[in-house]
Amino acid sequence: MKLTDGLRTAVLDNGLQVLLREVHRMPIVALLLAYRVGSRQEAPGYSGISHWVEHMLFKGTSTHPQGGFDRLIQREGGVFNGFTSIDWTVYYEMLPADRIELALRIESDRMTNGLFDPQEVETERGVILAEREGRENQPRFLLREQVHSLSFVRHPYRNPVIGWKEDLQRLTRDDLYRHYRTYYVPNNAVIAAVGDFETDAMLDRIAAWFGPLPAGPANDYTPPPEPPPRGERRVHLTGPTGAAYLYITFRVPPARHPDYFPLLVMNTILDGPNSSPPMGGGMGRAARLYRRLVNTGLAVHVSSGLSMSFDPYLFQLGATVRPDRNPAEVEAALLGEIERLQETPVGEDELARAVKQLRAQFLYENERVDIQAMWLSHSTIVASLAWLDDLLTNIAAVTAADVQRVAQTYFGRENRVVGWYTPTEVAHAS
Amino acid sequence: MRPEPWPGPQTIVSATLANGLRVWVYENHESATVALDATLWGGSVHEPPTQAGLANLTARLLRRGTLRLSYDALNEILDGLAASLGFSCGRHATGFEAYCLAEDFPTVLALAVECLLEPAFAPDQFALVQAQILAEHRQRRYNTGAQAWRGFREAVFGDHAYGRPISGGEDTVSGLTPQDVEAFYRRTIGPQGGVLVIVGAVRADEAIQQVEALLGGWNPSVSLDDPEPPSPMSASAPLVTRVTLDDKSQSDLVLGWLGPSRRHPDFFPTRVANAILGEFGLGGRLGANVRERRGLAYAIGSDLETNLQAGTWSVSAGVHPAHVEQAVAAILDECERMRQEPVEPAELADVQAYLTGSLPIRLETNAQIADYLGAMAWYDLGMDYLLRYREFVYAVGREDVLRMAQTYLNPERYVLAVAGP
Asked: CB distance B356–A77 less than 8 Å?
């Protein structure tokens, strides 16, 4: 399948990009509004501001002072959500097809009319601190946060999307409002609708709701360039945990770089097809990491991952050490699998299997119209629609030599960060 | 647009094999994929308490190789087809879920059946899975959410099997042997009363023939006794349990009660009442109070969990350790308000519109449909359940919601489990 088949694209006069795809399987429509803003756009001291703005947009606007968009959508039989990531912030609704106008009304409203009431900002500070503290309870969150902060010297990808606690404690209402006014403009957004509608009519409705909104100043913020890595970096955390965790990153090129496709195939050979956005593939037990680490009893869980990003980001390896084994053996085994890819080309049947898995995963996850909307808008933001159009072709064209070459190019010792989280003995009483 | 988006008696093709296995097939040719969902009798309530975790270990070993195929060989085939297959166990049932490309359906069905009928229970795989489960137990020891839920279920269900974790305890799991697994499998897992659902790009008649050919001759002699249903909580005061976990940033709390079973007439009234209390919008009335008004929690909501014999109606939240008392008081206030005053007519109407209107969104993929049909067949809700769903939801009135709150949300006899610093 190709998501670009039957796709209509348009750009409104104010710069809003529109992507429309009719799918008539079910009488529902997914509407997704994505802004080009995430942790990538956050200056030092302002980490977490994009995510906090996202929270505030579930609060009041000048036309809906009480907020309550969640209830407005649900009572029409819809579902909604929002999330903030490294490169983008997303709001989406899925509604019965005859109710989709509501989503257009809400999204055009909160693109410009957010109130950021000071009292609500303070209440939300508590909510976001609680969200962060909930994650801090998880050792893997803390480990990931530390490893990412060592994986970049200057680029804001080094900061957690949710923000450092110290920043969350001091960000002000005016900081948030400035961020909102800077990035929430039509020319910094992509709107995608997929589902049971008629394209011309939907385009008219989008133009009616969003056309009158004024364009803002252009946002071509470029983070400071990242210097080349000078050597391996390591971090060792300890804390209350029943298992030791390992997390290793390598800096790799972004989605629009030609080497992204061999990296995606390499990731699949190591761990089966991860889905993006994550859907839980369920495949990968014949993949190399599972066989080498879980089947042998070294680890109870292992994974690799590769995100779609705008700037160079991270290829990730993770493992949960079996309690009777030690992190050093697990680290050696993980890195041993990388060395194997560097030294010996993968077999043709292994390569063919990875390609088939990626194609199948793409088909499985795109049974959902909201996932289709996500692929279309995410590709537009970090690469292009042409990139998405050629994605499966480019994956199928990857050779064993390509995989070996990217393994040799990007997985040197100087390019990696290794993190351990191991148990401390703590008081534990019921 | 399809004229009738819901699977129902006109569109579900069903058959019952001579051995008592029910097969439901729903053709959906919109996507070239197939989802399988099987639920068979035999779960954690059927294991002795001294062998808690046995059913779970057995289910996980069913995916670990057959008399013909090693675990590696099975993985090679499934990964080569880009298919997924997983076995799991619940309180009363063991089952599998599979997802594959339509062209591979016959192969994947045959593999799933081979796993089910001819498991190897190889000692090396037993050792690996046992070690893995024990490692998961150790991880959960330090997980505030897992500890709060464990404490809550133990206190609500007391000695009943629903009070034990499905994964068992570290002591019971470490005592299990491959012989225990083999014996449990022979004694409990069989086709009688079970259900296999197939949804996707298949021909229903062909699929049923394939199932008949593969499973029609399966006739093990099993003997199953469900335990007595859990007795109502007898304590006359709140039951409070605490697990201290130092060096954590947040405490998890679960506060709740025994709830109705899935087939109980109270199911829909409590389902609606729960959506008002802690689900609609960002966590219902609880979210509006604890999260939006007080800023005490990010995660707050209530949940109705129902099974064959009973269920739970619970509120859960993650809060700063210093805010536990404040959050509990706010939660109890909201529960009390549900008991004292009928809900607003508009509030009820909103929630009814939400529950019925969102049905197409919850039935979009073959896997989602298979999951629904599996529950409809397993709980005997009727093949017309989805067609009547609207009627069930709209039959609930304000006085029913009030009555449910007064029946279940007893302020004298709740269970509160807290895990954190």
From this structure: yes
